[in-house]
Amino acid sequence: MPRVSTLSIYIGARFLVAIFAVFGLCTVLIFMIDFVEMLRQAGKYGSVPAWMLAWITILRLPAYTEMLLPFAVLVGSIAALLMLARKSELAVMRAGGMSVWQFLRPGLFVALMLGFVSSTLFNPLAAHARDRAERLYADAFGREASALGSKGSGGPWLRQDGLDGQSILNAVSARRRGTELNTVTAFVYDKSGNFTERIDANRAILEEGFWVLRNAVVSAVGREPETFESYLLSTYLTPERAADAFGSVISVSFWELPDLIYVAEKAGLSSSGLRTQYELLLTRPLLCIAMVFLAATVSLRSFRSGGIQTMVVTGMVGGFGFFLFAEISRQVGTAGLAPVWAAVWVPVLLAILCSVTVLLHQEDG
Fold it and tell me: SS3 of 34, please?
């Protein structure tokens, strides 16, 4: 038993180091790409200190990198198994009577724990950091972007109704699940549907029955533009509807999703996007396990038998094919064309079943 335990720890450590190496490399590449994009934004919209750009990029990084964990598990598992095979350690394990299922067990356990930690701990951290990054980004670029006219109208548009009539609202960015907007433009109509005024504001905060527009410039028909430190715009919009219109599921924590889904469904709103995100987080541990099985199908051949490069390329192509299929299935579920649970769980279960079938054929004939 001590030997098995020591060997399991050794194999698990090899998987963990390889996965973290791939994850770290991807993180550095994403940081560099995003930082270059931030520099481009700074050059277009105005001067922003380099340290601020770097800090915003760091805060945005967890939300981007958590989606790369399954890919890191796939590539890291392939690398770990290839290194074990290259040093003939897998051959020694087989000679000692270990089956593929025994020496894969530590890797499966590592993948399971990484998926669990990613969903329950890393995701809430990433959501909080992303929310903070959106606030800093709006403070750094929102005012400069609004000065460019049409450049500032790239966010979502929302038609709403209120006590004083209808209005059409646009925001460059949103935070606090859509209840706080930055760089806001509103076109206001009276109850007869006639245009009355345009409002440009730096920020809008949703209160009970109205938006509070900060530093608003009101351009009414037949009047000169007026500036108000605070301006009220009536609305029947609820915080839940605002989250559905402006919010981003990537900024919502795993632990907050069930309550948001319940509130959205009680309000009669579509919760497919929130449900899809929740199911994706639930399946992440199982998805990481699927990646280990997929890696094993292309990494257990002896180096002396040749064809390693072909098998690895096949595994990588298979991995990208799976991710493409899973993304298409997710979009189908989000669009309401299939049950959300089926759109998320079926690709993962198919990947596990196909990989286990190939391993059984390779090992047991």
Answer: helix
